[in-house]
Design a protein that fits this description.
Helix content: 55-70%
Largest sheet: none
Structural class: mainly alpha
Number of strands: 0
Low-confidence stretches: none
Number of helices: 7
Bound molecules: heme C
Distance between the termini: 73 Å
Length: about 160
Amino acid sequence: MNGIKKLPLGLLVILIIIQFVHPARNKSGQAMPNDISKMVTMPPDVQGILKKACYDCHSNNTDYPWYTYVQPFHWFMDYHIQSGKEELNFNEFGTYTPRRQQSKLRSIENSLKDGTMPLSSYTLIHRNAILSEAEKSLIISWVQNSKDSLNKKNL
Ligand code: HEC
């Protein structure tokens, strides 16, 4: 019986202690010479959609929502940012080889068609990151144009 009573208290203590751990935040005030907008045309509406739905995990700047000031949510978010950026970073797009750029653009298109991005654990709270069909088609045709224009550049 005693063990059962102690468990929640132990958990509470741990929860309180981890509130004092604040990992570095994904914020860069730096100029971004390798940003994708330097490589392909990025109309403001496309940029707006990518910013609200993708940039938190796929850029060097995350808009941290209030709940990430509470642990362990910051760690979950950090984990997604780290692995998301490793796969695709819009701010570092220019550092990719032409082949990688093409393959990343293809995966963006696929992820939207399959509905695998943005992550559902994210849209659960970020309702405005759920993309409408119109927003998806806009991004998909931008991806197709970008693939073509990069292809021409690299001929
Ligand atoms: C909450 C964080 C988060 C958001 C928001 C998010 N992603 Fe991701 N994304 C990830 C993570 C984590 C991975 C790597 C692991 C995986 O594939 O699940 C990933 C992987 C990807 C990949 C795969 C890259 C590859 O080469 O296979 C693409 C493409 C992608 N995301 C596109 C997008 C697009 C487009 C959006 C916006 C519409 C978006 N993501 C929003 C976290 C996120």
